[in-house]
C-alpha cells in the first residue's frame, strides 16, 4: 500500500512529497519501490518550471540545495540515502505515479532508510596534494 502526502515549502516553487511504502505479506514490493532501493520512505523534491531561464536555473538550484540538506540531515541521524535523478526521475511512469503537472520537474528522489551495511571508507588524499596556494 502506498501513501502519498505532499506539501509546499518556501520558496514557493519547490514542492517536496513524501511516499511511505508499507509491505503486506500478501503483496510483493511494488516495482517503483524495488527500483528506488527498497527503502520504506522516499522524499521527492520537485520544482515549478519557470519561463525565464535564469529563474528556472535558480529554482533547480534551490530544489537541489533542499535535497542536499535533506541528505545531510538524514546522515546526521544515521539514516541511509541516495540521490536519484536522471531518467528514473524524469520518466513518464514516475510523473504519472506522483501526479505531477507538466509545469513541475523533479530535482531528486531520495530513498531514506536504515542501511543494512556501512559504506566502505575510502582513503582520502591529503588536501596539499590537490591544492596550491597562490596568494592574494
From TrEMBL:
Q: Where is the Nitroreductase domain?
A: 10-113
Question: Basic and acidic residues compositional bias: what residue ranges?
Answer: 119-136
The record's region (Disordered) falls at: 117-136
Q: GO molecular function terms here?
A: oxidoreductase activity
InterPro entries, alphabetized = NAD(P)H_nitroreductase (IPR052530), Nitroreductase (IPR029479), Nitroreductase-like (IPR000415)
Name of the molecule in the record: Nitroreductase family protein
Q: Which organism is it from?
A: Halanaerobium congolense
